[in-house]
Each structure stands twice: as structure tokens, then as C-alpha cells.
Amino acid sequence: MTYRIKTFDDYKKVYKKSVEKPEVFWGQQAATFKWHKKWDKVLEWDFKKPDVKWFKGGKLNITENCLDRHLPKRKNDTAIIWEPNDPSQPFVTYTYQELHDEVCRFANALKANGIKKGDRVCFYMPMVPELSIGVLACARIGAIHSVVFAGFSATALADRIKDATCKMVICSDYNARGAKTIPVKEVVDEALKQNCKSIETVIVHKNTGGKVKMKKGRDKWWSDEVSGKRKTCKPTVMNSEDMLFILYTSGSTGKPKGVVHTCGGYMVYTEFSFKNVFQYDRGDVYWCSADIGWITGHSYIIYGPLLAGATSVMFEGVPTYPDAGRFWHICEKHKVNQFYTAPTAIRALMAKGDDLPNHYDLSALKLLGTVGEPINVEAWNWYYEKVGKKKCPIVDTWWQTETGGMMISGMGGLSPMKPTHAGLPLPGIQPCLVTAEGKEIKGNNKEGLLCIKYPWPSMIRTTYGDHERCRQVYFSAFENMYFTGDGARRDKKGLYRIIGRVDDVINVSGHRMGTAEVENAINEHDNVVESAVVGYPHDIKGQGIYAYVIIQNAVKDVNAFRKEVLKVVTKEIGPIAKPDKIQIVSGLPKTRSGKIMRRILRKIASGDTKNLGDTSTLLNPEIVKEVIKGKA
Ligand code: WTA
Q1: What pLDDT is stored for residue 254 in this prediction?
Q2: Ligand 1 atom closest to Cα of 401?
Q3: Cα separations (Å) of 367 from 284, 287, 343?
């Protein structure tokens, strides 16, 4: 087990050491895990390429550290408490021994289906224990998992399967979400019609038991595949820097990119950060309400908690089913001690009944966490007062798919806490603020672009199949720094407040989206000539999606046209990318070089039409008035 920080002074000491002697510090943390061979060198790095290697020469298997390592002392400890969508159904638990056995059985099933070290396996599943089991089974045999959020469309799924040339898809029959039953296997079938030549096998987990079509020779039932398989499976020994997984995320331009994380560093950092930020003690019940389709689920539902030998709740459903008290009901039922969710969920629940948490016994709660987007003061206060009864510290954790783990956050209740501020960096993390020219802004009470100037173990290694893109996006803006894409402010005491993205990425209900991606989807509509998408402040979602579109032929029924656009976006990306507002315009404000002036569109969309700045240099200044007038 890595070091556990116990006081604020302790944090300061540990932080100092981690920055002054990073290799000694991380070497000591890594030494607490099981390795087949010790590393030759803790760190080798060059941000120019980028080429970052942690624990080079070390050999390990992450699942041995998640599972086998705990068996001598805590095999009967609960690893997962699975709470189904339907609250009248019984919950299901897995002890560490049971989870180990299931992971091994499925790993043997993967092997029997020809999956080998280095093969890519795609998951398209709801929040069921089999998703964790499947992911860990891949890691057991050195296969690379690529989990795709089950809300993405068939086209988005196909894009991701093709980009990673996956050999297998693992899915469920249906997904039970609230009152809805969503066909999952059908979406996979649809995706596989879109030229996914690399797929040889589809394994289907029976979740609801609804009817599905099975393609002979290709589709197999999960239960048939694991039946008769052994409960042990020798872990494949991996190099520290071998790929562990790919996770797609959106950027400013182009299609989503596959962020690659590797075995050794990711293991060390997710355990260390999990334990310290949440101040997790053995026996505590921890619950992260994120979906495993996002990085939060990877690092803090699967790997971090299991590496730390924790007990965690996994929830299949949605916060508002059967009613908006569901989250608090689950906290009461399983005596949750640490609860980790997104600001958008807090805002939605707050709006549904300010007083609802008071109807439940939340006395087990010791700590609350948030992630994914900036939290506004009202939501923070409500979370602190109504949910935490003013006795639970809130950890506002800032991080990204690319960072693999939490970067800036309080350490439980040890650190100073200030609403809307993520706080201080975790040990080993060296954030800095820079000007647009790349000059570091020293001192406190300053604002700038947020960069990280030293490697940390769980950082992105590459973007799958396109290393140059990784260099371009993250390491080319500023010399010798990782650029986050976020703007931030450092207050008088050095606490960081994340302001938000400074690029063309928007954050809708904690889901990260590239405006270019949404535009590309809208442009698939036959009658759309051009479009521009921006984010605007939204009470519940944080940011809403505002789309300006130029059409070819006038439409009689604007609402019908809007519906068609929503349909196209749902087909291309998924319902999460549906614009909240669509405005038909005859032109878009452009610079003389033909670039869309998103700054102006953002202001208009947010209702701030007074401070548009100088528009006279535009190619078509007259369009601004029209756009303002027609605001949706
Ligand atoms: C935003 C999610 C403010 C930020 C783990 C970042 C946050 C993007 C916070 C990454 C926070 C995440 N406060 N903003 N506590 N956490 N963000 O890759 O803009 O889905 O760059 O990772 O979410 O989103 P991603």
C-alpha cells in the first residue's frame, strides 16, 4: 500500500519531497506493489517527443495487485456492491475472492476465443459487474480494453472500433436505465455493419433477458463462454510501459482520440490518489456514481478502489429513478462513507427537491467529492449543507482523461477548503499558470493557462495510432509543458480554481465534447450548408449546446427541421450531443481569413450582446445584428 497522508503538515512534507526528489518518492510508492521484476529506472522523460517512461524495466500485472494481492488478508472483504436499476431487485455483492474467480473465468474465456496480449477488446455495456469483470479479465491476459460509453450511437461506436482495430466487442443484450430499456446489442449489430472488419467475436451478456438476434459463428453468450472455465488464470506478465487501455475523448478538432494509459504508472498513481484524496480506511464503503465509460469510472470505480482493497458501490441506474431521492436512498441503504459525483447531478437533484436528502439517514457519510466540471457556489453549498450536514469535507477534484488520475484536489478534510476551488496539487503534481506566449506566471492571485511542468505516473503516453497528434495537442503549445486546455486562477493562498476550457471543447453535464465533432454531425443533414457550435451557461448541465446553422433551402416548419437535426446528431454521436438550441442564420461572423469568430457567437449565445468587442474587422460585420435578433 502506498503512503497514506494523515495531516495537513504531512501533506506539505510529502508534497515537498515529491517535488524535490520525485524519483525517490515514486520509487517508494511503487515498491508497495507486487512486481515480477523491479524497474531499472523510475523515470525517463522528454516532453518534446513526448516520451515518458515510468518504472522502466519493471514487470507486473495490474490485476494481481487489484485482486490476488488482497486474498491472503481480505479475501472475504466485499469488493463490489452492485445496486440494480430497479430498487425492488436485490443488490449483489462480490468479495475479493469471488471477483478474482470471475475475472479468471472470463479471462480464460477470452483466451479460448483467441484473445492474446496486445489485442484490443471493445466494451459497450451498462453499469453491471460484468463490465468490471470483463475489463479486468483483459488486463489479466494483457489485452487492451477500449470501453465505449453505452450512450454513444452505432456510428460513434463503429468509429472507435475501427480506430483501435478491435478484435472483439463485449456488450449486453439491453440496458436498464430508469423506466427505459435500451437495446444495446442492436446498436452493436448496427455498428458492425459499418465496415468493422477487425471484429471476429461478439460476447453478449444477458442483462435483462430480452430478445436479441445472434449471428451464428460471431455472437456468443457470456454465460456459455464462462461455463466450465477454471477459476484461476495465470496473469500475463507485462512491462510497466505496456498499454493497459485506450479511452476515447474529445478535443478541439477532428474525431475523438484514443488516450493511451500504460500499466505501471497508472497503477501506482490511481491507488495513491484514491486512498489519499478520499482518505479511505479499510471497511469504509465508497461510492462513485460515474459511468465506467468515462475516465472517472476507469480510475475510481475499477482500478483505484480495487488496488486499495476498498469496498465500492456500483450503480446501474439513474439518479432520478424511481425518484430524485435514489442517490440518498442508496447512501442510506449501503451506509456509504465516501460519495463521489458530478456537479450536474447535484444541480439536477437540488432542483428536484431541495429538502430530499433530509428524508434519508445519511449519517454514515464522511466525505463528499465532485468531478468533471466547475461546481458553482449554490451547488457546493447545497451539497455541503443538505447532503453532508456541514460535517463532510468536499473534495473538488480536477483532472482529465489524459491525466489518468486526480491532479488538484483537497486531501479529504485535511486541506483548506474553499467553494469552487479545486485547491492544491496532489503530491507529485507540478501545475503552473502560463501566458498565451508560454511565459510562466509566478506568484499568487494570478490567472492563466493551466499547464503541468513535470511528468506524473498516470499521464497520457500517446494517442492511439497517431503519436504526432498527442505531441501537437498537448506538448507543442508550450515548451516542456503538458497543456491542459483549461484556464485557471491561483488565489492568494495558492489554491487553484478551474475556470474552464479555453479551447473549443465544451462540457455538457460533465460530458466532454468537441464543438467540431457536433458541427460535423449537424453538417450530415442534407439541408445544412455550414454550422457553428458553441457552449453557453446552462443551469443544470453547466453548459448547453448552441448551434448556428446555415441552410440551403428555406424550411417551412422550423421545429420539424430542428427535430431532424437532433435526429442526425443522435445518429452520428448519441443523445448527449443534441443541441439545446438551434438557430438558423444566413451567415456566420468570419474573420477576413475565413475563420468563424466563435468568441462572438459564444457571447451572443450566452445573452451577452453588449460587449462583443470590435466587430468592424469582420469579413461580414452586418451578420452580427441578424444573429443577435434571431437568438433562439
Ligand atoms: C473539466 C474528467 C472544474 C476540465 C475527470 C477538464 C473540471 C475536463 C473538474 C476533463 C473540476 C474536470 N473543476 N473543471 N473539478 N474536473 N473538469 O476528460 O475542463 O472527461 O479539462 O475528465 O473537465 O474532462 P474529462
Answers
A1: 82
A2: 18
A3: 11, 11, 15
Digit-coded pLDDT (tens) for 186-207: 999 999 999 999 999 999 999 9
pLDDT of res. 613: 83
Angle 604-605-608 from CA coordinates, rounded to 5°: 45
Q: Which residues line ligand 1 (CB under 6 A)?
A: 249, 294-296, 371-374, 396-401, 422, 484-486, 498, 500-501, 507, 512
pLDDT of 247-259, one tens digit each? 999 988 888 999 9
DSSP-assigned states of every residue in 207-244: SS-------TTTEEEHHHHHTT--S--PPPPEETTSEE
Distances (CA, A) of 271 to 247, 261, 284, 460: 19, 15, 15, 17
249, 398, 426: residue to mutate for ligand 1 pocket, most atoms within 8 A of CB: 398
Whole-angstrom Cα distance, residue 441 to residue 18?
22
Name the DSSP letter for residue 359: G
User: Residue with the nearest Cα to atom 8 of ligand 1?
Assistant: 400
* 538 CA to centre of ligand 1 in angstroms: 17
Please tell me the predicted confidence (pLDDT) of residue 631: 84
Closest atom of ligand 1 to CA, residue 396:
15
Set of cell numbers at residue 207:
442483462
- Residue type for 536, please? Y
DSSP element (H, E) containing 562: helix 558-572
Centre of ligand 1 to C-alpha 372, Å, is: 4
The Cα 406–Cα 159 span in angstroms is: 28
Determine the pLDDT at residue 7: 98
Distance CA 292, CA 301 (A): 7
Q: Is 586 exposed, middle or buried (0-12, 13-18, 19+ CB in 10 A)?
A: exposed
52, 56, 58, 64 alpha-carbon torsion, rounded to 10°: 0
321 CB-contact burial (10 Å; exposed 0-12 / middle 13-18 / buried 19+) = middle
- Asked whether residue 156 carries a pLDDT value surpassing 90, the answer given is yes
CB 65 within 8 A of CB 31: no
In the chain, the percentage of residues whose pLDDT exceeds 90 is 95
Contact 357, 382 (CB under 8 A): no
Chain Cα centroid distance, residue 417: 24
Q: How far apart are CA 14 and CA 5, in angstroms?
A: 8
pLDDT for position 157: 98
Separation of 387 CA from ligand 1 center, angstroms?
Answer: 22
Q: Whose CA is nearest to atom 10 of ligand 1?
A: 400
pTM confidence score:
0.97
Residues in the chain: 632
Contacts of 77 (CB under 8 A, 6+ apart): 70, 95, 96, 282, 309, 311
The three cell numbers locating residue 181: 430499456
Span 539-562, pLDDT tens digits: 999 999 999 999 999 999 999 999
Which residues make beta-bridge pairs with 451?
A: 432, 483
Q: Please, are residues 502 and 309 in contact by the beta-carbon 8 Å criterion?
A: no
| Mean pLDDT for the stretch of residues 435-458 | 97
Residue among 567, 566, 570, 568 nearest 580 (CA):
566
What are the φ and ψ backbone dihedral angles of 556, each rounded to 5 degrees? -80, -45
**Rounded mean pLDDT of 334-340?**
98
